[in-house]
Amino acid sequence: MASTTDYKIDFTTFYNVINNELKSTPTTRTAINPSTLAPLPPVPVSTKSDVDAAVSAAKAAFPSWRDTPVDERSALIDTFADAIRANFMEFASLLALEGKPPMAAQFEVDFAIKHLKGTAQLRLEEEVVEDTEEKLVKVRYTPLGVGVGIVPFNYPVFLGLGKLGPAVLAGNAFIWKPSPYTPNTALKLVELAAKIFPPGVVQALSGEEDLGPWLTAHPDIRKISFTGSTPTGKKVMAACASTLKRVTLELGGNDAAIVCEDVDLAQVVPKVALGAFNNAGQLCVDIKRIFVHEKIYDQFLAGMVEAVKTFKFGGSDDTEGAFFPPVQNAMQFEKVKEMFAQIKKEGWKPAIGGEVEAEAGEKKGYYFKPTIIDNPPEESRIVQEEPFGPILPVLKWNGDEDEVVRMANNTDMGLGASVWSSDLERAERIAKRLEAGSLWINTHQDLHANVPFGGFKQSGMGHDWGIIGLKGWCNTQSLLLRRSGGII
Questions:
Q1: Is residue 47 a contact partner of residue 25, using CB atoms and an 8 Å limit?
Q2: Residue 412 in contact with residue 383, Cβ under 8 Å?
Q3: Where along the chain is the active site annotated (predicted)?
Q4: Catalytic residue numbers?
Q5: Beta bridge partners of 355
Q6: β-pair partners for 176
Q7: Are 408 and 258 in contact (CB under 8 A)?
Q8: Which of 53, 28, 332 lies closest to 208 in space, CA to CA?
């Protein structure tokens, strides 16, 4: 068995990983630390030939990997998770440079390792449909071939490993395409993977905006798993149509939290506040809209304000308890800034915040003051759109369950939703009427490797994780064995 020292890697230089070899490119680019605006170490800019080389290596590796027993595939995934753990602080420090306070970066790496190890325990078994004297009928799940994970900037380690694990466990070869805003950590994770998996099974390509279209158009790629915005997801789906690639799309969210009048405010308010401002609102399943019963609205809102006052925002250099990051990049900063501009334009009432920290404070990066909008109109932009930043509407509901369900479902999105109540029967009754792929009661963002994750409506199609997620990396194949009776 290899020792942990066998899995130590250099964290100062960054390469593509093709067929388990580190490859440079003629051109490089640099991402930006959003908390300091300093450039990160340069990373490759892949060419079309790099894409072809990686796909060819994956295609060549696939037959042998497909035929590797699942327990052996699982063991290598588990070893990979242990190898990441052996480099834990190095990965967390690098992730911090890509946009998070050290505490938040450590949380993400730790959660990603646990999720990956949970994935390794899953097994996709054949299903027996009929077993009689005449015939045996089974449904089998066979891997697709070469798959690609297109990973966003907000949780680049967790979401990347959340695609890699199921893909390779199911028997596919996998190419990781990181966001141009957060490429460094991904490249190092795959460099580490190259020490563990056979050549061509796990690869990584960094690049500019043309890299994604090259991958979605490539005829030898069988699946694209994409996490990102709904508009970009539609483009990915359209690009995959010409080659009939399988597509999993995990897109935007506008998650509702419904708070009933019987909750314990001291217990619930801090949990809801964290669920709303986690990662500065840059999480698809952050709470984006809160509907609070009018009987407790004022107390709940006051509690939210006090909770937000305790939040410590910071960046890669903040080691004194900061957990909430800046907005990750300049593009997203401008989008969120435009939403903040609507506060005065639309006459919204901030209960706290309302300002751009980068302009009003001492911090240099892409910071906003966390902001709560007090009971805006239901049709206002802050309610209908996902800001993907630290700004949140809180609205009243009057106790009519039909009405609050209508309000919660009044969106094109349907990723997650939660109901908060001491009456669990009532909470479940309300939750089951919500149009969202993940429902939580008295919690939110409670994610697990063995639970499928996907959205309704324009929040996506298909699922990651769990047995259903594994099936998404496979062809469905029926097998009928005629025991007697001859050919029909």
A1: yes
A2: no
A3: 250
A4: 250
A5: none
A6: 149, 204
A7: yes
A8: 28
**Sequence-ordered list of residues with C-beta below 8 angstroms from that of 7, at least 6 positions apart, any chain:** 82, 83, 86, 87, 192, 195, 196
Q: Is the pTM above the cut of 0.90?
A: yes
The long-range contacts involving 303-306, CB below 8 angstroms and separated by at least 24 positions, are 303/265, 303/266, 303/269, 304/269, 304/272, 304/273, 304/351, 304/372, 304/394, 305/351, 305/352, 305/372
Query: In terms of DSSP H, where are the helices of 87-210?
Result: 88-97, 102-120, 156-169, 184-193
Task: Identify which of 57, 47, 17 has the alpha carbon closest to the alpha carbon of residue 211.
Answer: 47
Residue ranges of the domains in the chain? 4-251+459-477, 255-441
pLDDT of residue 355: 84
Cβ proximity of 169 and 116 under 8 Å: no
Would residue 209 be called left, alpha or beta, if left means φ above 0 and alpha means ψ between -120 and 50 degrees? Answer: alpha
Domain pair 4-251+459-477 / 255-441, same fold:
no
Amino acid identity of 360? A
Average pLDDT estimate for 444-468: 98
pLDDT, mean over the chain: 96
Task: Give CA–CA dist 59/144, Å, rounded.
Answer: 11
pLDDT single digits (tens) 317-332: 987 889 999 999 999 9
H or E element in which residue 146 lies: strand 146-150
CA distance 185 to 470: 25
Kindly state the average pLDDT of the residues 303-323. Answer: 93
**Using CA atoms, how far apart are residues 200 and 62, in angstroms rounded to an integer?**
8
Fold (topology level) of 255-441: Aldehyde Dehydrogenase; Chain A, domain 2 (3.40.309)
Residue recorded with tokens 């698809």:
284
**Which tokens in the block code for residue 74?**
């699982």
Supply the Cα-derived Rg of the chain in whole angstroms.
23
DSSP structural state of residue 38? P
Neighbour tally for 272: CB within 10 Å:
26
For residue range 44-85, what is the model confidence (pLDDT) as tens digits? 999 999 999 999 999 999 999 999 999 999 999 999 999 999
State the DSSP code for 180: T
Per-residue model confidence (pLDDT) at position 3 = 57
Is 70 exceeded by the pLDDT of residue 1? no
